[in-house]
Automatic annotation (TrEMBL), chain A:
<feature type="transmembrane region" description="Helical">
    <location>
        <begin position="272"/>
        <end position="290"/>
    </location>
</feature>
<feature type="transmembrane region" description="Helical">
    <location>
        <begin position="68"/>
        <end position="91"/>
    </location>
</feature>
<feature type="transmembrane region" description="Helical">
    <location>
        <begin position="143"/>
        <end position="166"/>
    </location>
</feature>
<dbReference type="GO" id="GO:0022857">
    <property type="term" value="F:transmembrane transporter activity"/>
</dbReference>
<keyword id="KW-0813">Transport</keyword>
<keyword id="KW-0029">Amino-acid transport</keyword>
<feature type="transmembrane region" description="Helical">
    <location>
        <begin position="12"/>
        <end position="35"/>
    </location>
</feature>
<dbReference type="GO" id="GO:0006865">
    <property type="term" value="P:amino acid transport"/>
</dbReference>
<dbReference type="InterPro" id="IPR052157">
    <property type="entry name" value="BCAA_transport_permease"/>
</dbReference>
UniProtKB/TrEMBL annotation, chain B:
<feature type="domain" description="ABC transporter">
    <location>
        <begin position="2"/>
        <end position="223"/>
    </location>
</feature>
<dbReference type="GO" id="GO:0015807">
    <property type="term" value="P:L-amino acid transport"/>
</dbReference>
<dbReference type="InterPro" id="IPR027417">
    <property type="entry name" value="P-loop_NTPase"/>
</dbReference>
<keyword id="KW-0029">Amino-acid transport</keyword>
<dbReference type="GO" id="GO:0016887">
    <property type="term" value="F:ATP hydrolysis activity"/>
</dbReference>
<comment type="similarity">
    <text>Belongs to the ABC transporter superfamily.</text>
</comment>
<protein>
    <submittedName>
        <fullName>Branched-chain amino acid transport ATP-binding protein LivF</fullName>
    </submittedName>
</protein>
<keyword id="KW-0547">Nucleotide-binding</keyword>
<dbReference type="GO" id="GO:0015658">
    <property type="term" value="F:branched-chain amino acid transmembrane transporter activity"/>
</dbReference>
């Protein structure tokens, strides 16, 4: 039984990282109505940028505590440089177009990003674990925890709460909700829907890049990370119900725990658990845990 | 004054507005009468910038609306109540009313003033203010849609078939509210579309007839036939 608690923390920490991808995917889908396959790229780009800046900081002899602002800044940088640009150059032209076209365009974008990343960062794996090292471990009741993993779980909770507060209590949140409910009427009431799309997309990019950056201290980054991220992120978003913030959070926890259970009882099944869960949930509830055919999105 | 100069709108090669020209004089009420499919909704949606012109121009006090982005109509003081009331279902009635003031970043005192004047015109909205937009009946929704358009409209208000589907008592109430608006907002330019002009006799200054995308001046008496 002693092994189950560390496994649980492991599972929840992994769930937090998937949640960062899934929630951005879900946000972008509800506001822009585009299922963005390239979303996984922002996760891996966030990771690459974080290890690059982190590596530079380490070799410059900067304090390892600076790793935390670096992780955050990396995500903000990726979001600021790529969010508005990609929305305006590619995504915008797929609004209102058939889903097949949106998926093809964003898949093409994903492939381009994959090659660009190999070109810029090479094909070898990169590691930069200063943030994890500096936080150390704590021992509670004879069990040792990586403090960094506890931080990941706490950050995911912060993101759920912040997004909910943003949507419910801020001007931007209300404008986003209005555009989600009725883009056309929103425009006639003076809402700059284009700007709302751009901002929502950029928030999604930021969350994905943050997930990727936060993943590097424990798992590093190597080619293939983006593909893994989008597939898992999509599974989690679908389990939660596309467009559901809390749904994505709950789904991430369920997927995380299912992997723990698999590791405990049938390790061979661990990699397929997310998809098994997705299969079962979607068979019973085709619109996901929190979704219905006409559920309010976000 | 809002003016359409030879406005043409096409849907996939199909001309729906045929070089339409008319003026909405400031402070007057114009009713546009036309059968189903004549192009009333298309006319209003085009003014709102929701549909592109394939030829012609629309100007307000000389300013070409082609230079204004679609969402910029509200900032110019052009309010619009669509045919199907279109509330934001998850917002309360008051949040629906306040949405344009939020979008336009109006200051607190302007916001309070506009909301106050809408509640004064339509006291029934104050009672509905906490209700979710998605829970309204058709008639209530029409009233809130009018209120929301009035929150925006400082110069022009466009109402698309406001009486359609209203029970007689509600329609009468709506007409009375419109008369009050007419009375209190002397500078406001009104354009109301209808498939039959019965209820508007009291407030209308002039009538336009729209038929298969062509608009001509008419009189209310003629339009009744
Ligand atoms: N999105 C669209 N695509 C193609 N044709 C359209 C579209 N919207 C309207 N039309 C056509 O344009 C013409 C005018 O339609 P419009 O909705 O403006 O009529 P209307 O006068 O408002 O009718 P109603 O009284 O039924 O509301 C109709 O022939 C309609 O079929
Ligand atoms: Mg119509």
């Amino acid at each position: 039984m002693d092994i189950i608690i560390p496994l649980l923390v492991d599972g929840l920490a992994a769930a937090s990282l998937i949640f960062f991808i899934a929630v951005g995917l879900t946000l972008v889908f509800s506001v822009l109505r585009v299922l963005n396959v390239a979303h996984g790229s922002f996760y891996s780009i966030g990771a690459y940028v974080a290890v690059s800046i982190g590596g530079w900081a380490a070799s410059a002899g900067l304090s390892p505590w600076l790793s935390f602002p670096i992780l955050l800044i990396s995500a903000a940088l990726v979001a600021a440089l790529l969010g508005p640009f990609i929305e305006a150059t590619f995504i915008r032209y797929t609004y209102g177009k058939p889903e097949a076209l949106q998926i093809l365009v964003t898949f093409a974008l994903f492939l381009i990003f994959e090659d660009l990343q190999k070109l810029v960062f090479g094909v070898q794996a990169h590691y930069q674990d200063a943030a994890m090292q500096v936080l150390g471990v704590s021992e509670i009741g004879g069990i040792i925890y990586l403090n960094y993993q506890l931080l990941l779980i706490a950050l995911a909770v912060v993101v759920v709460v912040s997004l909910r507060l943003l949507m419910r209590h801020t001007r931007l949140g209300k404008l986003i909700l209005a555009v989600v409910a009725d883009p056309e009427v929103s425009v006639t009431l003076g809402i700059n829907a284009r700007q709302v799309y751009s901002i929502a997309f950029t928030i999604g990019v930021f969350l994905a890049a943050l997930g990727g950056a936060l993943a590097t201290p424990t798992s590093g980054v190597a080619p293939g990370l983006g593909a893994e991220a989008i597939v898992l992120g999509f599974a989690v978003a679908a389990i939660g119900g596309l467009g559901q913030i809390e749904g994505a959070a709950l789904a991430a926890v369920i997927v995380g725990l299912s992997r723990v259970i698999a590791i405990y009882y049938a390790p061979a099944f661990e990699p397929v658990m997310p998809y098994l869960v997705m299969l079962v949930v979607l068979l019973v509830r085709p619109y996901g845990l929190f979704g219905t055919a006409q559920a309010r999105r976000i | 004054m809002l003016v359409l100069h030879n406005a043409r709108v096409e849907f996939g090669g199909h001309t729906v507005l045929r070089d339409v020209s008319f003026e909405l004089p400031q402070g007057r009420t114009t009713v546009m009468i036309g059968r189903n499919g004549a192009g009333k909704t298309t006319t209003l949606r085009t003014i709102m910038g929701l549909l592109p012109l394939s030829a012609g121009r629309i100007t307000i006090d000389g300013q070409d609306l082609a230079e204004v982005p679609d969402h910029g109509r509200a900032a110019l003081g052009i309010g619009y109540a669509p045919e199907d009331r279109r509330m934001i279902p998850g917002f309360t009635v008051e949040e629906n009313l306040l949405l344009p003031t939020l979008a336009l970043k109006l200051d607190q005192s302007t916001t309070r003033e506009r909301l106050g004047s809408v509640y004064e015109l339509m006291p029934e909205l104050r009672e509905l203010s906490r209700r979710p937009g998605g829970s309204l009946s058709g008639g209530q929704g029409k009233m809130v849609a009018l209120g929301r358009a009035l929150m925006v409209a400082t110069r022009v208000i466009l109402l698309d078939e406001p009486f359609q589907g209203l029970a007689p008592a509600l329609a009468l109430n709506y007409a009375r509210t419109l008369a009050k608006v007419r009375d209190q907002r002397k500078d406001l330019t009104l354009l109301v579309t209808e498939s039959s002009p019965q209820l508007l006799g009291g407030v209308t200054d002039r009538a336009l007839q729209i038929e298969r995308g062509e608009v001509m001046e008419t009189t209310l008496a003629e339009a009744r036939h």
